[in-house]
From TrEMBL:
The gene is LOC107685451. Residues 66-75 have a biased composition (Basic and acidic residues). InterPro entries: PA_dom_sf, PA_domain, Peptidase_M28, Peptidase_M28B. This is Transferrin receptor protein 1-like. It is a single-pass type II membrane protein. One of its GO terms (cellular component) is external side of plasma membrane. The chain crosses the membrane at residues 89-110. Residues 136-146 have a biased composition (Pro residues). Residues 245-307 form the PA domain. SUPFAM superfamilies: PA domain, Zn-dependent exopeptidases. PANTHER family: N-ACETYLATED-ALPHA-LINKED ACIDIC DIPEPTIDASE, TRANSFERRIN RECEPTOR PROTEIN 1. Its main location: membrane. Residues 406-508 form the Peptidase M28 domain. One of its GO terms (biological process) is intracellular iron ion homeostasis.
Length: 533
């Protein structure tokens, strides 16, 4: 009974082993290829035998295996394949070069097409009608282009003294601080005028930082404990705070005045008193800062400003540069976030303007040696100062984020409309700004009107003429600088020249002087002549 049981068990085990072996063959079965290579007797070609086999033909552990030849195939190849491989490599390299050249040509043609396309208002330069042809040739029945003398004659005939006088009177009535309601209203008026003249106007917006006095906490100047005054004028981008130091008179604040060893001026920790003129206020304050001063006071000496009242206030800025000093080198568009930065042109000391009467009060209280003759003006006394002359300067200006607008209009050129001449004028003013912003804006609008009328006749500008009204000019040409920084890549290729109307006519002048001699006071007159004719 036991032997039968053992036999039955062995038989069952053998059956199970056979089942496992068959199952393994089914699951693990896969094909593979065997290669045999032999050399032909002639030595010119090789014979390769390819044989497909099935796994499971050989089993391990002494199990008997069945072998079956599935497929047998032979082919021949040339043993001299080197030249053919080199040829294929050269063809491949040539194909890559052809594809690269085709792509380069396509990219170049697309780039040229984009350059020749008309600028949109978003480009900030010229607004074109998409239906206008890229180049307008002179109509066959039109008269030939004018020469310069003919153009000047037409302008003198077309410019209206009455229109200029009316605009001068209108624009000098209101103080137009950059970003204020008065400034924005004038910008809207200019936009409307450009619209009436069919000049396709557009507006360029920037968000900049401007500094204004604190109306509730005015700036002050004290000599010892005596208050000299609270001037209304100010210097934008001055440091704020309160500083006291020994007052020293330093003429115009030029480096030759500050570094002259003959007078032995020690400016370290001092408050430097300087006359306005010769160099910019920003340069004066920067020079004083380099010499270790803690504050700078600037006044208009009657010897240099004979027509100005002794109580006249001065306005300006101390940024030794142009544009928004808190976005140096890049445009202030739509609150765009940039890493915190500050222009190196900011002097870092307090700066304040005072009137001639305030300066007279300080000189009367000063001690020390008398100033040399070349330092003197029309005040009653001039002294260099002593160690006991202490002056305190308090500057409480506020820095404000301000939205500003530049306004543009264009008269399109006939020969080369995608290149342009820019005629610009500052619009804003911290005071009446007569010589600078008022005269410039009045002439800008009158020139736009005259050019539009001339275009209806025989005048055909070769290039487009862009008329630009800038703002924030009193803070360091911020409006125009931000525009340049924003569109420099386009301006570098397409702008022909820029003509500024700021302070184009100064001193005592009449409306007739503006009319008859306008172009003789323009800067870049030769470039203007070449651009227009």
């Amino acid at each position: 009974h036991q032997s039968q049981h053992t036999l039955h068990f062995n038989s069952m085990a053998g059956t199970i082993d056979q089942a496992k072996m068959k199952f393994s063959r089914i699951v693990n079965s896969r094909s593979y290829t065997r290669f045999n290579q032999s050399q032909n007797p002639d030595g010119e070609s090789s014979r390769v035998e390819v044989k497909l086999a099935v796994d499971g033909e050989e089993e391990m552990d002494g199990i008997e295996q069945e072998q079956e030849h599935v497929q047998r195939d032979t082919y021949t190849r040339s043993s001299r394949s080197g030249p053919w491989n080199k040829w294929r490599f050269l063809v491949w390299v040539g194909g890559v070069l052809v594809i690269f050249c085709v792509g380069l040509l396509i990219g170049y043609s697309v780039h040229r097409k984009s350059e020749s396309a008309s600028c949109s208002p978003g480009d900030g330069v010229i607004k074109h009608d998409p239906e206008d042809p890229p180049n307008q040739e002179f109509p066959p029945n039109d008269p030939p282009p004018l020469d310069w003398s003919e153009l000047v004659g037409l302008l003198n005939d077309k410019l209206s003294s009455k229109v200029i006088a009316d605009k001068l009177s209108e624009y000098s009535q209101v103080v137009r601080k950059a970003g204020s309601s008065a400034d924005n209203k004038l910008a809207d008026d200019i936009h409307d005028i450009f619209t009436q003249l069919n000049m396709d106007p557009w507006v360029d917006e920037h968000y900049v930082k401007l500094q204004f006095p604190n109306s509730s906490n005015p700036n002050k100047v004290l000599f010892g404990a005596v208050e000299i005054g609270s001037p209304k004028g100010f210097l934008a981008y001055s440091e704020t705070g309160r500083r006291e130091g020994r007052v020293v008179y330093a003429n115009y604040g030029e480096l030759s005045d500050l570094q002259n060893k003959e007078y032995g001026l020690n400016l370290n920790g001092s408050v430097v008193l300087m006359k306005a003129g010769k160099i910019s206020m920003a340069q004066k304050v920067m020079n004083a800062a380099k010499m270790g001063a803690v504050a700078a006071l600037i006044y208009p000496d009657p010897a240099d400003y004979k027509t100005m009242s002794w109580d006249a206030e001065l306005y300006g800025h101390v940024h030794l540069g142009s544009g928004d000093p808190y976005t140096p080198g890049f445009p202030s568009f739509n609150h765009r976030q940039f890493p915190p930065a500050k222009s190196s042109g900011l002097p870092g000391i307090l700066a304040q303007t005072i009137t001639a009467n305030m300066a007279q009060s300080i000189f009367e209280k000063m001690g020390g040696e008398g100033a040399p003759d070349r330092f003197k003006g029309d005040l009653s006394s001039y002294k260099l100062g002593s160690e006991s002359d202490k002056v305190t300067v308090a500057v409480n200006n506020n820095l404000a984020d301000t939205k500003i607008h530049n306004v543009f209009g264009v008269i399109k050129g006939y020969v080369d409309p995608d290149r342009y001449v820019v005629i610009g004028a500052q619009r804003d003013s911290l005071t009446s700004g007569y010589a600078k912003s008022t005269v410039g804006t009045a002439l800008l609008l009158e020139l736009a009107r005259v050019f539009t009328e001339l275009k209806k006749g025989s005048f055909r500008p070769k290039r487009s003429v862009v008329f630009a009204s800038w703002t924030a000019g009193d803070f360091g040409n911020i409006g125009v600088t931000e525009w340049l920084e924003g569109y420099w890549s386009s301006l570098d290729r397409k702008a022909f020249t820029y003509i500024s109307l700021d302070s184009v006519v100064t001193g005592k002048f009449s409306v007739f002087k503006c009319q008859k001699h306008l172009f003789y006071y323009m800067p870049s007159i030769i470039a203007f002549q070449k651009a227009m004719c």
